[in-house]
Amino acid sequence: MPEPLLKVQGLKTYFFLERGVVKAVDGVDFEMKKGEILGLVGETGCGKSVTALSILRLVQSPPGKIVEGKVIFEGEDLLKKSNEEMRKIRGTKISMIFQDPHTSLDPVFTIGYQIAEPIALHQVIEQHLMRAEEVPGKVMEMLKLVRIPDPEHRVVEYPHQFSGGMKQRAMIAMMISCNPSLLIADEPTTAVDVTIQAQILDLMRDLRQKLGTSVLLITHNLGVVAEMCDRLAVMYAGNIVEQADLKTLFEDPKHPYTSALLAAVPKVGTKKMELETIPGMVPSLITPPPGCKFHPRCPHAMDICRKEFPQMIEIDKGRLVRCHLYGGGSKK
Amino acid sequence: MSSRIPRTKSRPAKAEIAALSGKARVSGEKLIEVKSLKKYFETKRGIFARERKWVHAVDDVNFYIRRGEVFGLVGESGCGKTTVGKLILGLIRPTTGEIDFDGHNIAEFDKEELRKLRRRMGIIYQHPQSSLNPRMTVHTILSRPIDIHKIAQGEKKEEIILKVLEEVGLEPQHLDRYPHEFSGGQQQRIAIGRVLVLNPDFVVLDEPTSALDVSVQAHILNLLGELQSKFDFTYLLISHDLNIVEHMSDRIGVMYVGKMVELADKEELRRNALHPYTRSLLAAVPIADPKHKRTGAILKGEVPSTINPPPGCRFHPRCPYAKPICREKEPEFKDVDGGHYVACLFVKSLRHKWPSPA
Amino acid sequence: MLDRVRDFLRRVRRSTTFRYLRRDIRAKIGGGIVLLVVFTAIFAGFIARHDPAAENPSDRFQGPSWKYPFGTDDKGRDIFSRVVYGARTALIIGTLLVVVEAVIGVPLGLLAGYRGGKVDNLIMRLVDAVLAMPGLIIALAFVAVFGPGLYKVVLALAITGWAGYARLIRGQTLAIKEETYIEAARAIGEKDRTIVFRYVLPNAISPLIVMITMTFPAAILLSSSMSFLGLGVQPPTPDWGYDLNAYKKFLGDPMPGPLMTILPGIVMVITIFGFNFFGDALRDAYDPRLRE
């Protein structure tokens, strides 16, 4: 069994604000294999974005702080690295693309320049993998790889001359130019039209195949997840509550939150007029409910759920749930 | 500025409009009909621009909405669906065309008549927080429509407000609070309450749940569905999310770059979409079901600009079936099958290419 | 009515702006000074021991003492009492100036911003012209024609001062106009007039508060300048600027001569400083970009 590419253990990232301590990520564990697409799913505020930022140590340091945990990437704990070492990893070994393409690109530099920058910095200057003259060629290669039409003309254009979908692709080009082993995509298609989204997702699948890049796909869109991911981790209020491979999770969700979430999505082709709803509201991350954080909204809440925070249990190979319905009480 | 439509004789007096507030229980009749509707916006090009450039936001759209139905309007950014919604409400004036509401062409109404028309219409916006005045309490927000249209006063007014609160799932203690003190879902409920207070005939839902979480979305959609059957609303549901539109609508219209390219009953569209764009759109929508395989090729190219739309059929640059004539001739939006409208020159031949409807 | 006030205060206390203010030392120091000045102005009658205009020839040129904390002037008047009542004059001028400038500037700003087009153009050209004028000079010209005095000073300063309010409100209005809730208001049938006063104006107020706070030190400085030149507030109304001018001739004299100008001068400087400091803190507290 080869070593996982990424192993996150007990990650806790808190934000120390005037009104209290926001426990955005409160003990998250998961693994990623080489070449797989793991979906990190959840609603607003569940901590998925903060988890991603924590992996890359991009959390704004006051007020946020990674208080505990290990992020083991290719055998080394990223949380123990220096800032300089992290800088060398970002963009080369681990890259991240963000939700809003319109604000992620610098408006005063051409697209070509922005794609060239990480290549020049990391591959030419730092790692001596390339000579400076080879950079423009590599830029063109990247533009073609992300299927930007007419790359010879596009390379000298500015971001405002690109459409949303193209900007997103340019950003992908920037981020995979150094062939990272892990690509973190935070809501990469939320701000983009449906037909363009389909193109971008197709591109990402293609890249996974061609380059073997693993993708940590963060989204709240269950449709995107169903199309793209091999495995899924569902997050709620700072914790992962269930992990499984795609089909199993959709067909047989174990955690009550997961089933409720799946039932709440209007699907094309279903005849039901009424959607299942989850009563109550997302809990406060400053003062979460005692015991299981989902218990106030859970139709199956038992006495123990109010008192004890459930542990993550592996009920089957690759199948993990954090719920008292399946054990999860603390073992002696 | 949009050109003023010349007045005709057949306009009702102002007093009559106010009296038209009763809702006939006749379902199925046309409540709204849009004829040759066009809306062009002028782009600001700066002092050195020689030609004026126009955004063809809505470019000759024709359809009707039946009383009591949910009409879904889908399309991607720039297709004009939101503009159509606002035109029907009278919030924007058309460049040319007719908009019939309950038999009266509101394109010809003056400012005051339009204002009175608001009594019978409502709108729910995409971002609930920005659609509510941050300096008004919930009570004031709900009172304003009642006060403006002089529906009730004093105790009777408070009764209406309390009843509306109950219908949307809020509590009396919420009345003294300000919008920012609520969650997104609750804010949308307040916005729905603001509409409910007038008990209008027609409500435009402009991406009502796009900015909300999945679980909250379900609550709001259920609420909207309940209210529709309870109060006999007619909905125009505008969304880019086909899943939601399919879930709620009776009939669906598909728009592309300012034009309507297809219109059909929900079932008919699902089983037998005839326009290549609609088929691509349906194929592109991610379904929350891993067993579902994507049918159809992925559409190439970008969504075109509405300032210089492609000549002829606007979809031709991306259409996998385009022929030279598609670049020259604009297809007519025609009824090809008992209420199923399509705008495509080759609809007859294409029908046979595609797998037969399930 | 009372609970509207209570409700308003509760909202203020809970607001983010207030919380930021509470932590800002500038707000505390500046605010403290402002409160002190306001208190002095209101309770001048109790704080001052003597009638500021009362001349006591037998007590002339006295240095600071228990009876006369700032000493007496060349006519035997208690300088401390003059300064105390002078605070009242200063604040009256400031308040009146704020009112007149706002009453002229705010509606013009709202009109320009909401209507746009030619109306906006017209008003803004006027605002630009007025802003280009030297306010103090115009004010002096005004009193040269119409004579000096407290109310004329206010009017003279307001002739040019309203433009800042108009420009600020216009900017706010332009931004607020594009907000969804304005369209939503139209969608429920609100009249334009109602929209301007119940939807736009309440949301445009915040930067206005800062501007109002900053009008006070400007008013004090300008009116004192005018009084210093003898063209402002006239006796017997006590005024800082007037006193500065009246006592400046004793600066070269032996003590307590110089103190006669210096002490009121220090009070004036501290007052202006206090308002400015508080205004700065207030401006930063409102700024969403400086939020956490």
Task: Describe what you observe in this structure.
The complex is a heterotrimer of chains A (332), B (358) and C (292). Chain A is built from 12 helices and 12 strands. Chain A has helices spanning 48-55, 83-89, 101-104, 111-126, 135-145, 151-154, 164-176, 194-211, 222-228, 246-251, 256-264, 303-307, and strands spanning 6-17, 20-32, 37-41, 64-73, 76-77, 94-97, 182-186, 214-219, 231-236, 239-245, 313-316, 319-321. In chain A, helix 4 (111-126) packs across helix 5, helix 4 (111-126) packs parallel to helix 7 and helix 5 (135-145) crosses helix 7 (164-176). In chain B, a hairpin with a 5-residue loop joins strand 11 (334-335) and strand 12. Chain B is globular and about 70 Å long. Chain C is mainly alpha-helical. Chain C has one domain (24-48, 77-290): MetI-like fold (Orthogonal Bundle), CATH 1.10.3720.10. Chain C contains 12 helices and no strands. At the A-B interface, helix 7, helix 8, helix 9, helix 10 and helix 11 of A face helix 7, helix 8 and helix 10 of B.
Q: Which secondary structure elements does this structure contain, and how are they paired or packed?
A:
The complex is a heterotrimer of chains A (332), B (358) and C (292).
Chain A: E1 6-17, E2 20-32, E3 37-41, H1 48-55, E4 64-73, E5 76-77, H2 83-89, E6 94-97, H3 101-104, H4 111-126, H5 135-145, H6 151-154, H7 164-176, E7 182-186, H8 194-211, E8 214-219, H9 222-228, E9 231-236, E10 239-245, H10 246-251, H11 256-264, H12 303-307, E11 313-316, E12 319-321
Parallel strand pairs in A: 3-8, 3-9, 6-7, 7-8
Antiparallel strand pairs in A: 1-2, 1-4, 4-5, 9-10, 10-12, 11-12
Chain B: H1 14-19, E1 30-42, E2 54-66, E3 70-74, H2 81-89, E4 96-101, E5 104-105, H3 111-117, E6 121-124, H4 138-148, H5 154-168, H6 184-196, E7 202-206, H7 214-231, E8 234-239, H8 242-248, E9 251-256, E10 259-265, H9 266-272, H10 276-284, H11 324-328, E11 334-335, E12 341-342, H12 347-353
Helix pairs in contact in B: 4-6, 5-6, 6-7
Chain C: H1 2-14, H2 16-23, H3 25-42, H4 44-47, H5 79-115, H6 117-132, H7 135-146, H8 150-177, H9 180-187, H10 192-228, H11 240-247, H12 257-286
Helix pairs in contact in C: 2-12, 3-5, 3-12, 5-6, 5-8, 5-10, 6-8, 7-8, 8-10, 9-10, 10-11, 10-12, 11-12
